[in-house]
TrEMBL record:
GO terms for cellular component: membrane. It comes from Coemansia guatemalensis. This is Major facilitator superfamily (MFS) profile domain-containing protein. InterPro entries: MFS, MFS_dom, MFS_trans_sf, Proton-linked_MCT. Residues 39-422 form the Major facilitator superfamily (MFS) profile domain. It is a multi-pass membrane protein. One of its GO terms (molecular function) is transmembrane transporter activity. It holds the Pfam family MFS_1. Keywords: Membrane, Transmembrane, Transmembrane helix. Belongs to the major facilitator superfamily. Monocarboxylate porter (TC 2.A.1.13) family. Its main location: membrane. Coiled coil: none annotated. It is found in: Membrane.
Length: 433
């Protein structure tokens, strides 16, 4: 019975070679060799680093709004350039996923995250001396984006290696740092900008990144580090694996869809008579629901199966965009949309690395997840521009129907990809896969 349970934890199927079973038991022994509190320190440290990296990206809009209205007001070209910075940061956090995951496995999770934290702080510090938007594109968009990309993948996957029965809950708590970081850092940034200046807010940000990030990096580690692997041993043949390709496609479609509602729902609500203040509250509701969903869906996945939870979450996200968004023209229905979308879409970020561990094994989770995050970068680059192009088309600027269908179809295709991998793992409909 124990062997079967262990097989299900790492997703290697029912016909598991004896060598793999031996490795799994060896992994359990490695975990037990550490004090019990080590695993919880790993979760806490990864939670903080995720909050710093993603929370600062989410709070860039505060600085962008101030610069656009007070520094570059009346200069449309520079204001347009400011708009690229958030996209560059968001793109960078995924673009560096593949090399970051591989470097973490070959070199060191701790040292890689420390390097990323240094780059994040350096980007903020250099930005404080910039006078032109194109300079901010380099310091924040590229330098900070590189640092965020170096820490995001490793901190998303490190906690999973410390758990076998509560892997979903551990991952969910970790990635909930994204939402919590946004909720804390955005108002903090607004306060610093208002009371000091954009430049000093960036310098202060660099200081707390170094302090909190360096302390957290000290605790980031995995129980087993395979020192026999090298940079030359990357397995490009993984793309010959049908499951791997299907999972990569799912990741691409999800990332293309994910950010569009967060970007355009406020505009949709204002167009339908809801005040901008209420629209911002509805987005805040979606962010809170996202943080809660990351934890609860991860917890549920430990019981009903990660692949089941993944398909269910993607399906509900598709339904919310196709059937709720078009009718969310009042605050009441807007709250329903925010709750359903935020909860299920946020849960995906818990389930994505957890599902990769289930399908392809825990021992290569960082490099595999890194590959998927790099695929996500192209989806992130595609999603908003296509949505904006649809919105600018005839007849779509008022009812947003074309955009909601576009996003809903992306989520539905991702659901189909997840369902296909679920059926290849187990043909039993109600199995906890």
């Amino acid at each position: 019975m124990d062997n079967k349970e262990d097989d299900e934890e790492v997703g290697v199927g029912s016909n598991v070679p004896t060598a793999i079973e031996t490795d799994i038991h060896a992994e359990h022994k490695e975990i037990k060799a550490f004090p019990r509190h080590t695993r919880y320190m790993v979760i806490a440290s990864c939670f903080v680093i995720q909050g710093l990296a993603c929370g600062l990206i989410h709070s860039w809009g505060v600085q962008q709004e101030y610069l656009a209205n007070n520094v570059y007001n009346g200069n449309p070209g520079k204001i347009k350039t400011l708009g690229y910075i958030g996209t560059l940061m968001f793109f960078g956090i995924y673009l560096w996923g593949m090399p970051a995951g591989w470097i973490a496995e070959v070199w060191s999770y701790r040292k890689l995250c420390l390097s990323g934290v240094f780059m994040m702080a350096l980007g903020q510090l250099l930005a404080s001396f910039c006078k032109e938007p194109w300079q901010l594109c380099i310091t924040l968009g590229i330098v900070f984006g590189l640092g965020a990309g170096l820490v995001f993948g490793p901190t998303s996957t490190a906690p999973a290696g410390w758990f076998t029965k509560r892997r979903g809950l551990a991952t969910g708590i970790t990635v909930a740092g994204v939402g919590v970081g946004g909720l804390i850092i955005a108002p903090l940034t607004e306060f610093l900008v208002r009371e000091t200046s954009v430049a000093w807010s960036q310098r202060i940000t660099a200081i707390y990144i170094v302090v909190l990030g360096a302390i957290s990096c000290f605790f980031v580690r995995v129980p087993v580090q395979d020192r026999s692997r090298s940079f030359r041993s990357f397995n490009w043949r993984a793309f010959n694996n049908r499951r791997f390709v299907i999972h990569a496609l799912m990741v691409f479609f999800v990332t293309a869809a994910y950010i569009v509602p967060y970007t355009y729902l406020p505009q949709f609500w204002v167009r339908h008579g809801i005040s901008s203040e209420d629209a911002s509250v509805l987005i805040a509701v979606a962010n809170v629901a996202s943080s809660v969903g990351r934890i609860i869906i991860g917890f549920a996945a430990d019981y009903i199966g990660v692949l089941n939870s993944l398909a269910l979450s993607l399906g509900i996200a598709a339904i919310s965009c196709l059937l709720i968004w078009p009718f969310a023209t009042s605050i009441g229905v807007g709250v329903v949309m925010s709750l359903f979308y935020g909860f299920t879409a946020g849960g995906y970020w818990t389930l994505a690395p957890f599902a990769a561990a289930k399908l392809f094994g825990i021992e290569k989770l960082a490099s595999n997840s890194g590959t998927f995050y790099t695929v996500s970068a192209f989806g992130a680059w595609l999603g908003n521009p296509v949505g904006g192009a649809i919105l600018s088309g005839p007849g779509h600027s008022t009812n947003f129907l074309g955009m909601s269908v576009y996003v809903g179809v992306l989520w539905f295709v991702a659901f189909l990809m997840a369902a296909i991998n679920r059926t290849t793992y187990s043909k039993k409909l109600f199995a906890a896969a």
